[in-house]
């Protein structure tokens, strides 16, 4: 069946609800989690959690043990934590890359302005040097005046 352009399309009904979320706030949350996952505090907490888990399931009476020796449930919990941690860390890295890219572009723009300012000042200094070389200095003027005075004294002399 071909779609006709002179008639409106049928509205599609989906059973999946549309979830709207703010990607920026989710990104900030993922960065906070990723920062926490990269701390010594997290390692200490995780080590304590695993130690308590294993200790409880090794030393508790048999009717209180909930995860016997191969610790399959603990493995499942750690795998689940890792499966969520990896994408959150990647998302945080992507946001950091975006910030670094913006910072790089701002630095490049600032460097270009600095180079242009430096070139302008260099041209201005060169122009001032040229202009100063054409300006009469006091010593040059004094020597010229003395020479003129000598010439005048020589002409006013005996005739």
TrEMBL record:
Species name: Actinomadura spongiicola
Keyword Cytoplasm: no
Top-level taxon in the UniProt lineage: Bacteria
Protein name per Swiss-Prot or TrEMBL: DUF1003 domain-containing protein
Keyword annotations: Membrane, Transmembrane, Transmembrane helix
Pfam family membership, one: DUF1003
Record-annotated membrane-spanning stretches: 42-59, 71-91
InterPro entries registered for this protein in UniProt: DUF1003 (IPR010406)
